[in-house]
Amino acid sequence: MDINSHVLLLFANAFLTTALSVVIVGVILLREYRPTIRRLKDEAAASSSADTTNHNKTSSDLRDLS
Amino acid sequence: MTLAIFAIVLTAYVAVAALLARRIKNKDDFYVMGEQGSTLLIVGTLAATFLSAVTLMGIAGISYSEGPLVIAALGSFGAWVGTLIAVVFIGRKLKALNCRTMMDFFDYRFNNKWVSVVALILMVIGLLGYGIIQLIGAGLVLAEIIDIPFPVIIFAFTLALLAFCSLSGMYGVVYTDTMMFFTMLAIAFVIAPMLIGDAGFEAMKGLGETLPGFWTVGGANDRPLGWSISQFLVWILFFACTPALVSRVFPAKNDFVILKVAVIGVFFAPAMQLLVFLAASAMQVIQPGIEPTDRAMIVGFMEHTNPTLAGIGLAGLMASIMSTASTLFVLTGFALARDLYEKLFDREVSERKGVVLGRISQAVVALVVCAVAISRPAGIYWISIYAGAIFAVAWLPTIVAAMHWRRMNANAALACMLVGSITFIVVGELERHGLISLPLHIDNLQVAILLGTLALIAVGLKSQPSEYELKVFDDIRARRLSDTTIRDILARPDGARELVREYRQVWGIMVLFVIIAGALWGYLFSKLGT
Asked: Which residues form the signal peptide (chain B) (predicted)?
């Protein structure tokens, strides 16, 4: 199969544009949002284990975070 | 029929703008839509502003005559990546600093009237020069298609632009941009595939035999690789800090909108452009010999599709002109009202008066644009040679250094902007008049960026930043849009759940668009590259 390397460059660059945007946004999410998401999940888990017999609506909602 | 479409489309935009005028209650509403921009609206305005008449006519014409890779493979790639930089690295940071315009950043960072004056002058020249020349070029084409005198077209356009910029400010621009985005999508995803289908992939590949080099980066005219690389540099540097694109994220509701736009909006840049360029190449199979070549896509949708699609194509061409022009002109109006009158002249202005002032300045801009575009003074063509790229040579090194270099100060900023812009124009003129010749593959933009950056570094090292500049630098480094977004969302009832939902949604969109991009480009490569 003959491949035109110039055409490959064109479509590779088009794909690379999306790939770059995904990588950059992924890094932002992991660095800037994941710590908070983790903290919220830990708090929810701690809160729900402290309240196992008390059917607290807030803690049962936050269990959904995990 | 064409006249009817022209009238209906313009009327629709003005009607939407008139409806939106009631939402303008204060300056924030006028300048940044009250920061209520949803993902759809910000994607719409970004993609519509990105795609201008340059894509549908100029570059499409080159794709038709020389091959679709000549500009797209490297030059357009630079534009796509530049857009990503503008959204994520510059726009997002400026929004974190509560900037309503890019000038707000210069004012905050340096608090120096001379820096603000020079930056403002460069911005107004850059925006107006680039915008007016596009309006003229596309207006001439439209006048021919619709068979209306050119001054009437320009007058009608500027009236429409005046309506939606002046009546509803950024609301008008963003909503009409999004309407325009859908007509552009129709060109890219309905009309272009039809033309490609009519030509057939095999016949398109066969153009490599009849026009040797058609499917290479050098194209049928065998342009050197160095030229293609310099095109990449021009577009990436220009798009990375042009106010037209950076300011698209200011109306966004929150950081999650911007992150989604960084994926979705930046996907549509190559998606819309490449399909248009491939369709233009298909026109070489369907109807070779079109002159001038920048009419290739227009001939395509006017003469090789059904009347409905032809009308949509015409609306799309109008959209490509107006979406870019509206953004450029509304930003110029903002510069006059807010950055010049309110800040540089130090006038305290109430919310209500601020909105009135904003509207008046839009009217002034519309009058100037209309007069210059109709009269077409020789000077405007000269200005346009340098207008667009002025942001690359003068602003980009300044903004990057302002964000990342602790020693950056007002003197270095002035040095960079003045040396960069003057070098760009002087070297360009000397070369144009044959008084100097630059080495192969080097152009005046590269020389100007290099000298501007060197001037910035030299002056930055020689002079000291003030206490204010050091304090602001630390503040800029510390402030993150994600912190504001997290705080705002968690303050709401059920905020934790909403935060997790938004977080997961962005991941979902990322996965989805990687799959879509892989499928689309993989399919086209299998048809055209093997």
From this structure: none
Query: How many domains are there within chain B?
Result: 1
Q: How many domains does chain A have?
A: 1
Q: Report yes or no on B10 lying in a domain.
A: no
Sign of the C-alpha dihedral, residues B254, B259, B264, B267?
positive
pTM comes to 0.92
Residues on chain B touching A20 (C-beta within 8 angstroms): 81, 84
Give the closest-approach CA distance of B147 to chain A in angstroms: 38
Chain B CB contacts of A29 under 8 Å are 259, 503, 506-507
Q: Do B513 and A40 touch (CB under 8 A)?
A: no
Q: What is the pLDDT of residues B430-476, one digit of tens each?
A: 988 999 888 877 888 889 999 999 999 999 999 999 999 999 999 99
Residue B148 phi/psi, 5-degree rounding, is -120, 145
**Residue A52 structural domain:** 5-63
Domain annotation covers residue B4: no
pLDDT digits (tens, 9 = 90+) for B151-205: 998 888 888 888 878 888 899 999 999 999 999 999 999 999 999 999 999 999 9
Q: How far is CA B529 from the centre of its chain?
A: 30
Residues B235-269 pLDDT 10s? 999 899 999 999 999 999 999 999 999 999 999 99
Which of B95, B113, B80 shows the shortest CA–CA distance to B343? Answer: B113
Q: Which domain holds residue B406?
A: 37-528
Q: Could you report the predicted ipTM of this complex, rounded to two decimals?
A: 0.91
- Is B8 part of a structural domain of the chain? no
| DSSP 8-class letter at B450 | H
Report DSSP state, residue B188: I
Asked whether residue B310 is assigned to any structural domain, the reply reads: yes
